[in-house]
Amino acid sequence: MAIQNNTKPGQADDFLRIQDLFYLCAAKWQWFVLSLLVAFGIGYYYLLKTPPVYTRTAELLVKREYRGRSISSDIEGFDNFGLFRSATNVNNELVALQSPSVMTEVVKRLHLDMSYYAPGRFHDRLPYGMTLPFQANIAGIQENDFAGCTVNVYKDGRVQLSDFVLKGELLKEVKPVTGKFPGTLNTPLGKVTLEATSGYVRGTEYKVHVV
């Protein structure tokens, strides 16, 4: 019995075996290794250049107080149907907690109106908590004004303030201000008070950008 060959003379076979593909890639293995090294290098460099982002969450429980103390806890679920009114409105409590006045008070108490940046090898570090050597306070600055400076604390307890920025503009031809740490210094921005924190180690030099 004769077997017919439907392939025309001169027509190339389009079928590529997996074995042929493997040998083809193995012959160019240097390019695959180089591509992997470049990809991992770019990813590692991106991680080094990207500053870490810290988040903090909290949960708040608002208890409802009912006017009728004799109401059983078994029927408190009917409050969702509007059968009972609570003395404390949870929605009002949520609006009060998110009000600008409360948020402003939280920012002031936690000193969140000041940001600190310490120069690093790949990106600026964010000193926070035990890594923050001092807290700064600039008197006379309005809430919407942008001001900052560079603080250098030396081993002998001296401190130097330079690179003053006011309203987003660098104050040129302004000499650095030197004083003792901790203390209050008169600067072009106003009186700057520096207070040592529990993260401050005596005899250690610090360089922090305060904005």
UniProtKB/TrEMBL annotation:
Name used for this protein in its record: Chromosome partitioning protein ParA
Keyword field contains Iron-sulfur: no
Keywords tagged on the record: Membrane, Transmembrane, Transmembrane helix
GO molecular function: protein tyrosine kinase activity
Transmembrane segment boundaries: 29-47
Gene Ontology cellular component terms for the protein in this record: plasma membrane
Presence of keyword tRNA-binding: no
Lineage, highest ranks first: Bacteria, Pseudomonadati, Bacteroidota, Bacteroidia, Bacteroidales
